[in-house]
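Researcher: Let's run the pair from yesterday's discussion. Sequence first, then tokens, for each.
Model: Starting with the first of the pair.
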Amino acid sequence: MLEWTICTKCGKVLDNSKASCPDCGMKTDKLDMSALKGHLSNVTFLVRTLDIELIRDYCPKISALDTGIDVIVLDDLFRYFSFLGLGDGVVTDNELSFINELLDSSYTRDDIMNLSGEKADGLPESFECLHELDMFAQNFDMTGVKSCSELFESYRFLGKFFITVDGQLDEDVLDKYTDFIDDLRDNLGDYLLEDDGTTVQIPKPVEEAERHSLDEYLDELNRLIGLEDVKRDVNSLINLVRIRKLRQERGIAQPPMSLHLVFSGNPGTGKTTVARLLSKIYHEIGLLSKGHLIETDRSGLVGGYVGQTAIKTREVIDTALGGILFIDEAYSLASTSENDYGREAIDTILKAMEDNRDDFIVIVAGYPALMDRFLHSNPGLESRFNKFIYFDDYTAEELYDIFMLLCGDANLSLDGPADDYARQYFEKMYEHKSSNFANGRAVRNFFEEVITAQANRLAPKENITDDELNTLTYEDFLVEE
């Protein structure tokens, strides 16, 4: 029986004789093919149960297939494993058994050897089909469907177990695996979707032409609407870091300092925007080598069974090294359930913070009360996160300013009655705000409703003037009445 020994903390695949991990000292657990088959089954469930007739008019590529999408997925996985298996020129019994048991197939060694052993150009057909399915789901607000992303994660996850199926890891095979995954990620591009249907942001090196000066980034920070206390705190932090960097360059001793941060406040208060600017500013100061921001949450870190979470979390951390890892709603990792793997993610993050203290910063964010409980859930969190920045709700005037900024970006202006209505609307919005008020997000949602109302008003007309296209009227704001 094929079986792997996994560290329950760091997720490393170990020799089967190990009872504890030689790297972190934590206990190990066993993982067999049933767990991998369960993982693949979850990925292929949707395409195995898909009603082709339902989507025929929306997904022409899928509708034109003479076989099921699940067959295409499994065929492409066979070619992927074969490519890895031929990396050292030898297809072992364990590799063949892995393929046939996972894919429920009966391939022979000759079937693999007859392949070229070279990676085909472009995307596997299965990803093209699943992208079509994802777009269909997105158009109908089925934001939970992200087939391409799930299949990509399967390629990464299952590939790691395949290349260690013989209990040893050939460096050439590891290089082929890494190159394959990197190329696949690059080719997928916008095909990768987050849980909310938005595109996964794959970090890329900052090109010289895209960089701005430190003063330009600081000016951008200080020009943000509202957030006066936040800007004061962030500017003080930047000044502190600049002086520490100067002392370090001159060989002057200084006490250690944690630069990891807690951003607390309601949604839509600019936490992510400030974090992104901070990553660029720290890069210009010389504190971070890349200066990019990786955004994630519980779904991007936590897996479904022991060992998977540590692997998943480390992969996210690897993409964030040299920049800032921004964890939204971080308190969701601190579940009290014994069967929850959030604590495994926390332990992995804490270790990475210690191992990469000179070129890696973590910012955790969320509601104030829940963030306080999160930090007290683990002594390691309390010791590493000792700087807090609170993002207050926007005032009525600031909400209006945000709305006008959105209008300006869209080349829209308000006539007199519309401007009066907008000011009154945001005063009422602020007065009746809830404890989890959405702030900037609420403004953006309202803006989108208003421009939709304008479109509905203008569409039936003929000979629409430029002035009409660029002006919002009182009528456009009556979206909730």
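Model: Moving on to the second of the pair.
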Amino acid sequence: MRAAIHSLLVLFLFACQRSHERAQVTAHPVSVQAYDTSAAYHMAIEDHIAAMDTVTAPLPDTVYIGRHEDFPSINLPAIIAQRFIRIIDPAEGEIDKHRERFAYLNIFATHTPENLEFFIVRFGQGLRHRSDGSEDRHLFYRVNEEGGWVLERVSR
């Protein structure tokens, strides 16, 4: 019995270590001292695409970002993580919502000097939203020793 508990504890500690290593790999050079809204949103969109793009359910080649009243007035690159990015007003989303492969994201952010959080709500074809939140994500970043943001966790 003790051997089984010991084995589980070692496995748990190994998993925690692997999670920490993964967080270190996703460090971004976005400076905390000079908060750059465009760079922070770029980072979050890139990490969201990486988290949601799977072999069995790939994201479409174009991702639409909803320009709602809380979305900052920023410019983003035309391509992030090999996806075309289009920031559009809700009326334009209504026009394009019938595309077969449609991904429309509403993004909300909060930040402090130590933490940065993004809440990303995804809508699919017809502007349908999954009520279970399975396509929505919460990205939580913290400041690392070098003064950049590190993706701490991605959750629903």
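Researcher: Give me one sentence on the second I can quote.
Model: The longest strand covers residues 115-123.
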